[in-house]
Amino acid sequence: MLNLIAALPSIVSESRCEVRRILDNLDHWSDVELTNSEYIIPTHTPYKEKRMNDATMLSKDWTNRIINGDNLLAMQALLTDNSALGQPSLRGKIDLIYIDPPFDSGVDYRSQHTISSSTSEQSTVMTQIAYSDSWRDGTVSYLRMICPRLMLMRELLSETGSIYVHIDWHVGHYVKILLDEIFGRDQFRNELVWQRDAVGKGAKKGSKQWSRELESIYVYSKSDKMYFQQPFRPADQLTYTQLKEFRYAEEDGRKFKIVTLGDYSLQSIEQMRSNNLIYTTSSGKQYKKYYLDEFQLAIGSLWNDIPNLSHGRNNERLHFETQKPEKLLERIIAASTPSDGLVADFFSGSGTTAAVAEKLGRRWISSDLGKSAIMTSRKRLHQTCSKPFLFQIMSKREREQVIEVISDETKQHAFYILQSFGAEPIIEPLDGYFAGSMSNTNTIVFVDYNNKLNNRLSIEQLKMKCAKRYNKIIVLRWAFDHKLIESGQYEGIELYIIPEQLRYFSIHLIHAQKPLKTVKINFSPVAILTVCSPIIEVYDDQWLHIHLQLEHYHSLAAHYSIAAYPELHNIIKQDPLALIEYWSVDSDYDGQLFRNEWRQHRQYAHKKQTDHRVATKLKITVPRKYGQRTICVKAYDIFGYESEWSTTLTDSDIAQGGDDHSKNI
Known about the structure:
Blueprint: H1 2-24, E1 34-40, H2 47-56, E2 64-68, H3 71-79, E3 94-99, E4 108-116, E5 123-132, H4 139-156, E6 157-167, H5 172-183, E7 188-195, E8 214-221, E9 232-234, H6 240-244, E10 248-249, E11 255-260, H7 266-274, E12 278-280, E13 286-291, E14 296-298, E15 302-303, H8 326-336, E16 342-345, H9 352-359, E17 363-368, H10 371-384, E18 389-394, H11 396-405, H12 410-421, E19 424-425, E20 434-437, E21 443-447, H13 456-466, E22 472-477, H14 482-487, E23 493-497, H15 500-512, E24 524-525, E25 527-531, E26 535-538, E27 543-555, H16 556-561, H17 568-574, E28 580-586, E29 594-596, E30 598-601, E31 617-623, E32 629-637, E33 642-649, E34 660-663
Parallel strand pairs: 1-29, 2-17, 2-18, 3-6, 3-16, 7-15, 16-17, 21-22, 22-23
Antiparallel strand pairs: 1-18, 4-5, 6-8, 7-8, 9-14, 10-11, 11-13, 12-13, 19-20, 20-21, 23-24, 25-27, 26-27, 27-31, 28-30, 28-32, 32-33, 33-34
Protein name: Site-specific DNA-methyltransferase
Pfam families: N6_N4_Mtase
InterPro entries: DNA_methylase_N4/N6 (IPR002941), DNA_methylase_N6_adenine_CS (IPR002052), N4/N6-MTase_EcoPI_Mod-like (IPR002295), SAM-dependent_MTases_sf (IPR029063)
């Protein structure tokens, strides 16, 4: 414990240096620009309005957004002024930041999916890790993670803004020390205590400690000008004891209670008397009246009226283990933001903050690194949002530019990538490629830094050169086109996408001249989606009906999960499409921004429901277009992996679809 306390000054000092370096280079770094990957349009929006929204999207004052990536880099991008790309700096612009970061609990938190086949009644419940709350060097690692992020959040807050940090007993006292240092002890506003469970829930007769049903929310402001609107509890939520205080009544039956006048001035008392708010006893003593039908009880800092989502039936539950109730966020957002306020959550999880901000009419930013969290929140917001929103990722174009900038360190970086995958780097490059071997296997892993493995032939040639020593080749790249995806179907070749956070995390370490510490990271295996040739019907001279149907899906991630869930084998074998969580369609894809106009979701309507599959058919109605039209379909499976298929049609393709291909991002 003493070592941890002694480490706090260096944690703060190192974080300040890192943040200073980030802020000093905002005008020079281009490696963290955000790219608009998808523009999600509510399904019920008329087609003409969909395209009108699309045409004016980037010129609007604001579009809500989900960001997939390391929140340190997301905040760096939000601080950077990219007005030319429609992304002005948000420094000093955010009114409220709520975060529910990991608690340093040492637990792996999970999300849950029910998988069933269309060809049988067989189904299975599968859980997967949503995020791991374990840290390489324990609490020190956790605090090193959270400290620079809190510093950047302060930069993003407006002068009237506030931050709510949701934490528990594991590490809350250390986080508060960091918050005092970053925001100032004088800007500490309160500690809200949320009683998430009934007192003593889970405690056993032989328990040797007090039960733990409380969590803390630390509230800090950017300045003394913090925006705050006191929330009140209406009279119909008063307890029996509180209601008993209203034992007095007017002649018309209107109930009231009385309280002492305290330090009210004579002028104020006379004003209240003129409004019939003074009660005088038979002895002449005066009190102030509070009428029951007007009474509101101020909500304090102990919140015991909002149960967590484990209580009974609850329509909010999304099978995401750390999901928070909407009422909790409703209270925070309503009290801490004006009607047009901007709300941000950089550990968004299941997306509760964004969903509530949308319902309350606030603008919002939602960011998370985990695939499970992004998939859950996107699906939730598809069904919640009445306005379009953006899905943003890091730019591939800028990523390639970064490679040139750090060319002197590419070997170190490539070795870092290999070690993160679980491979032991080979010191000398093989055939010009950085490579590594997997222990106790005949597998070799290549990092394709310069995009030389850009077709099936180049990969097959590399395989032949390695055939005498290795029986399997794994290729790691930042992205793959459809030609390389087809190569992934050949025996002995596997393709994986390098995670975005690994790229930028290592760049920051290199620039900061810190030793690289690698942790095993999950890389995305390539997934392949195929769709049946579209069937086109002419509705009239101006409109077409296009019928789409998913045909097949192949994912290495599913096959790797069979060891943990053997019952998946038969379901995948019978019906690979059972793995699809949701899919969406852009009816006129321009090759740049995917307009998510129509979609199908896996449904969980009832516990007794046996068919948990997503609908595989969809009919869309679009205006007739003379010339080419590219239809693009994106699908996400239960593991959060994305696949893409597209086909190009012309007006002559009325009877049947055009040439199609599948693509993985």
